[in-house]
Amino acid sequence: MSSCGNPSTDQDALMPRRLRFNKGKDCIKCKANPGKIVIRHAVYCKECFIPLVMLKFRRSLEPSVNASAGTSKRPKLKASGSLVLGFSGGLGSSILLDMVHKTYFVNESSANGEARGGTNHPRSASVWTSCAVCYVEVCSAFPETRDRTNEIIKALAPYPKFDFIPLRLEYAFDDSWWRSITTTDQDRSQLTIELGKDGLYTEALRHGPSCDLSPVDALRTYLASLPTQTAISSAIRILVRLLLLYTARSHRASHLLLGTSLTTLSISLISCISQGGGHSIREEFQEEWYYGIPATTENADAIRVVRPLRDVTMKECSMFAWWNSIHVVGRDGQIRATAGIPGLTKDFIVGLEKDYPSTVSTIARTCAKLEPKNASPGLCILCQRPIQEGLDDWKTRISIRSYSDAKLGPDLVYLPTPVPPNSSDVTMSDQCPSISKQLCYSCRTTLTSRGSRAAKPTQPRVIHSTQQPLSAPLPMWVSASCAQLRTEDRQLMVLGNGEVWVGKRQDDATQRNEIAEFLLDT
Amino acid sequence: MAPASCALCQKAKAILKRPKTGQQICKECFFFVFETEVHHTITNAKLFKPGDKVAIGASGGKDSTVLAYVMKTLNERYNYGLDLYLLSIDEGITGYRDDSLETVKRNQQQYSLPLKILTYEELYGWTMDAIVSEIGKKNNCTFCGVFRRQALDRGASSLNVDHIVTGHNADDIAETVLMNVMRGDIARLGRCTLICTQGEDSIKRSKPFMYAYEKEIVMYAYFKKLDYFSTECIYSPDAYRGHARTFLKDLEVARPSAIIDIIHSGEAFGVREDVKVTQKPQQTCKRCGYMSSNDLCKACTLLEGLERGMANSVTTDRARKKLDALGPAPDNLRTIPQFRPAHLPVSVELPKTDL
């Protein structure tokens, strides 16, 4: 049957699509030129469209440039550090690179010799001391894909003022890279973990270094140990984000800019919600990253992650790139990085955008009105985003996973055939500490939640000396976070119920201060 | 390969894999964990107190049939002390609701619960068949949803009950979270993950199945051999919601925990305080007295459109303007009877076993 539903017409006949614009054929802004592009029912000419996109870019970026808002209505833009730009070679980051270059780093003179845009234009003063373009090569995660670093270097040739920092995904497991970007002399033994189990037990916390894999093998083992394709996509996304953030920190950057468009932002938001990341929904928009410190801390050294294209749709980005002859390298080699829930979400949102063009904007505007219900006690050691309290309670409340749960005691009398409490959990948790309490809900789900069909591991896992198919290595920052817990005055304690407690030794002076008001002068 | 033993009792042979936890468990353990989880949902949220009169929204479908069975079981097992009723709404959909109501009537006999049936026709003067013949299949779910919500409240009010429980399951909640994000309904997004909602002067509504997967409800009904009506509504579902539902099912295939993960997200975020103050306060409808965000409640607005031959006035701006241009509603317009939240005694149909 044809798409119009008439059985008597040609099978392939398509019903004429209703025109999505009804405001006339001239540009809605200048009302003089014929329209060239339809953006959500409104028609724009090329001359009006390009400044409009530039305006959206600056409107999203500039309010977050200065460290504090100040009292001036039009404060002079001055960032507290340098700029790092995350570049993937995709559409968004390509046009972002061009916009940043033209707006803040090129001060071309006009025909009469004066600075273009006047003395107050951001081009006339250096907003950032320098700009570095950071590219993360992910080919090591997918053996069938090729290294595109040289293509990226060529694409960056028109921007000689920008430094280029090539990174590789496996650096997340590379001790030498970690040493080069961190200054503290921490315990750098790599942490390994038994993935796919609810408790997320770690052997390395107790036994020390246990992983002698090369960074590439460690990366592949880690990814192969993840239980779903969604988890792999999510893990790669986290690794790329943290590699960029740590690099930005090592370059004393105040801002990390990402080329996330409105469409990709909406995809990220829905994907984040679908993976249980509702508590950190704000961070998907704009994030202030403090290394290892909760976001509530007043810290001038925070890195602001800004997405200046968050009001520009993918369609607008495409037209902007086309009309400005911006070369886009493309990212077709990363198909597997968007499998699972992120890939499904992308297909869904892009498809929905065709019939309901306002959807992406509605999603972003709706999520901008949300905030986490509860304060965070700290940051997740894997994704470095806020964690929630009471996750175990919530999980226990909504599902019964073991009859050994003490809260279930009175209910067990209604079980037709009484069973003794399951002791396996107690034994496991007694032997190995768990990092689950230091993970956010989303990361915990990423590491433990299985697909509808049990995935078979494609890569050999790290085999321990006990020959148990145990562990996958974890990124360096996870090991570092756990190492921080193992410093001199702290001690990890594992309780019988699987909880890991951090014991902090108090010195005499602290103890005395706490009881000072009850002590008599002698 | 030898069959796996139950992950919970370690004794019996596992016969199913729980979508919610991924565990392979036996039938008896499944019944136990399903019922106990619902019990925990009820007790953790302190939904009821002894002596409460509770109406179970019964459509004859799997969710409400299992809900009625589980509520009756838990009420007896844990001595909740509840007076349970079945409350059904007859939307007037020939070949669908009339058949499903037969299932509800059988459930009434099987579970020995009093039943009250309220029809759209007696309440609004319109059946869904008549509405669809007036407006077509597009957007008819808007009418049905709005009318049903109010009909349930009115039915509960006439039964003099304190509480309505509905069979909304985890899939429904997850779908609603996504829908509300996608259509920008910030007010509903803030409350759709609440297990119990109550407006001013309205009856409490709860969702004891909000953490129960739809698949597990079907499994429970299947293994318990419960009598339910499984046909989908004959009027095409809302296209936009259909997209969301398909998307959710795809997510569930990719990772079954996605449903509970979305609910967790919905519970973790809330509407910003500065946004809340801009939201409209709740008031009562000037025409029927039901809770409303505007002068007229949604049901009265829809009914006025139907009565004046402008049914699409709530779905398109152009039709709304056209209706406004016609002037105020005539005095002889058919309206919904005044809503009376006060508890008034009514007669209900009792099961034959009690007669």
Automatic annotation (TrEMBL), chain A:
InterPro entries: CTU2, Rossmann-like_a/b/a_fold. Pathway: tRNA modification; 5-methoxycarbonylmethyl-2-thiouridine-tRNA biosynthesis. One of its GO terms (molecular function) is nucleotidyltransferase activity. The keyword NADP does not apply. It comes from the Eukaryota. GO terms for cellular component: cytosol. It is found in: Cytoplasm. The keyword Translocase does not apply. Keywords: Cytoplasm, tRNA processing. One of its GO terms (biological process) is tRNA wobble position uridine thiolation. Belongs to the CTU2/NCS2 family. Plays a central role in 2-thiolation of mcm(5)S(2)U at tRNA wobble positions of tRNA(Lys), tRNA(Glu) and tRNA(Gln). May act by forming a heterodimer with NCS6 that ligates sulfur from thiocarboxylated URM1 onto the uridine of tRNAs at wobble position. Prior mcm(5) tRNA modification by the elongator complex is required for 2-thiolation. May also be involved in protein urmylation. This is Cytoplasmic tRNA 2-thiolation protein 2. It comes from Boletus edulis BED1. The gene is NCS2.
UniProtKB/TrEMBL annotation, chain B:
GO terms for molecular function: ATP binding; nucleotidyltransferase activity; tRNA binding. It is an enzyme of class 2 (transferase). One of its GO terms (biological process) is protein urmylation. ATP binds at G57, A58, S59, D63, I89, G167, D172. Pathway: tRNA modification; 5-methoxycarbonylmethyl-2-thiouridine-tRNA biosynthesis. Its EC number is 2.7.7.-. It comes from the Eukaryota. It is found in: Cytoplasm. Keywords: ATP-binding, Cytoplasm, Nucleotide-binding, RNA-binding, Transferase, tRNA processing, tRNA-binding. Its main location: cytoplasm. Residues 283-311 form the Cytoplasmic tRNA 2-thiolation protein 1 C-terminal domain. The keyword Glycosyltransferase does not apply. Belongs to the TtcA family. CTU1/NCS6/ATPBD3 subfamily. This is Cytoplasmic tRNA 2-thiolation protein 1.
